């Protein structure tokens, strides 16, 4: 009987490993040869990437049980009572600096005639099995992905499912000129059929030019991974995007930490910040900011106008779906910070005289 049970366990483990290697949504962990190359990074320690500051992510039994308990509890406000109204975006590409936020962190930046798509998660749900459970609040997007213009570059902040979506990448990859990603993320993209020559990988503090724009891969305090075996296998980051007359900061996912001030000192001031705001909890506050910290991070990087992102599309925490933006707006007013709150799909001009501020979420 013992041998039978051992055999069942071995077969089950083999099936799991085979499934993880065959099922494309998981992506691919960097190979041993690739990992050796990644080990040259200062952030790569003992076989994985680590944050610059100590980061607590207590996932012990007690904490895990408390998280599961809180997610199981019913709460009428974790999702909107009706789908949020979304604008049909304008995809015109010209010399003006414009930003269109599509919900969560997905955003389109046009600057100096170039188009950059940031963390384009356009799928139904941020999961390797997107057909399970409740997904995007709006049900879908106010446009067809085929309507997107030719994209000069996709910038990715890290490889989590709510930022790097297999289905989206497969639909847009043929209209993207370049994928610009943090170290290691190319392994996922190459598995999905993207030619290595279309991918650039960067480490923290790398500064480079792209089609006349100046870009910098800057730190974040977070983590990475898409399966049971690849936590920390790839790097996470934020991005600086600078053109002739505009400069934008995209935070990616991050807890509040000293890197924001360092970025502000090196690259600020910024005309606009796209700053993570949502999916937070005291139990993982080191890797996701509280809304008040979002505003402080904007101040630290020397931002002029802030758009809160990482909310409005999915429920990935136990707070009310609109709590993050409400708190961020209050904190912004208290600190005399200019904040814009566009509807999803609404394009804003970065150098406009006025910005959308209506509380459409309430």
UniProtKB/TrEMBL annotation:
Where do the TM regions start and end?
6-26
Print the keywords alphabetically.
Membrane, Transmembrane, Transmembrane helix
UniProt cross-references to Pfam families, sorted A to Z = Lactamase_B_2
- Name the domain of life: Bacteria
Q: Cross-referenced Gene3D superfamilies, in alphabetical order?
A: Ribonuclease Z/Hydroxyacylglutathione hydrolase-like
Q: Which SUPFAM superfamilies match?
A: Metallo-hydrolase/oxidoreductase
Task: List the catalysed reactions.
Answer: 3',5'-cyclic UMP + H2O = UMP + H(+); 3',5'-cyclic CMP + H2O = CMP + H(+)
Q: Tell me which residues make up the Metallo-beta-lactamase domain.
A: 116-311
Query: Per the record's keyword annotation, is Membrane included, yes or no?
Result: yes
Q: Which InterPro entries match?
A: Metallo-B-lactamas, NAPE-PLD, RibonucZ/Hydroxyglut_hydro
Outline what the protein does. Counteracts the endogenous Pycsar antiviral defense system. Phosphodiesterase that enables metal-dependent hydrolysis of host cyclic nucleotide Pycsar defense signals such as cCMP and cUMP.
What name has this protein been given in UniProt?
Answer: MBL fold metallo-hydrolase
């Amino acid at each position: 009987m013992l041998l039978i049970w051992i055999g069942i366990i071995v077969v089950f483990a083999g099936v799991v490993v085979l499934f993880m290697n065959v099922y494309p949504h998981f992506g691919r962990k960097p190979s041993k040869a690739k990992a050796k190359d990644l080990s040259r990074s200062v952030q790569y320690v003992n076989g994985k990437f680590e944050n610059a500051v100590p980061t607590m992510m207590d996932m012990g039994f007690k904490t895990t049980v408390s998280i599961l308990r809180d997610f199981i509890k019913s709460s009428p406000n974790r999702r909107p009572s009706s789908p949020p109204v979304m604008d049909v975006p304008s995809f015109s590409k010209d010399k003006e600096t414009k930003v269109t936020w599509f919900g969560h962190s997905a955003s389109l930046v046009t600057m100096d005639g170039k188009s950059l798509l940031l963390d384009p998660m356009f799928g139904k749900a941020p999961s390797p099995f997107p057909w399970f459970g409740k997904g995007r609040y709006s049900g879908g997007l106010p446009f067809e992905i085929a309507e997107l213009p030719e994209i000069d570059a996709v910038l990715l902040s890290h490889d989590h499912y709510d930022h790097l979506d297999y289905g989206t990448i497969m639909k847009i990859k043929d209209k993207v000129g370049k994928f610009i990603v943090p170290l290691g993320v190319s392994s996922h993209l190459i598995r999905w059929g993207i030619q290595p020559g279309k991918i650039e990988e960067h480490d923290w503090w790398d500064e480079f030019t792209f089609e006349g724009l100046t870009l910098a891969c800057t730190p974040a305090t977070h983590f990475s991974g898409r399966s049971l075996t690849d936590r920390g296998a790839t790097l996470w980051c934020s991005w600086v995007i600078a053109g002739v007359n505009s400069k934008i900061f995209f935070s990616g996912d991050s807890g509040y930490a000293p890197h924001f001030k360092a970025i502000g000192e090196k690259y600020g001031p910024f005309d606009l910040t796209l700053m993570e705001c949502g999916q937070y909890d005291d139990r993982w506050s080191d890797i996701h900011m509280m809304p008040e910290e979002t505003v402080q991070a904007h101040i630290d990087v020397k931002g002029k106008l802030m758009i809160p992102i990482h909310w409005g599309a999915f429920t990935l925490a136990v707070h009310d779906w609109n709590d993050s933006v409400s708190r961020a707006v209050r904190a912004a007013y208290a600190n005399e910070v200019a904040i814009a709150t566009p509807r999803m799909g609404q394009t804003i001009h970065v150098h406009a005289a006025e910005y959308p501020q209506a509380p459409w979420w309430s």
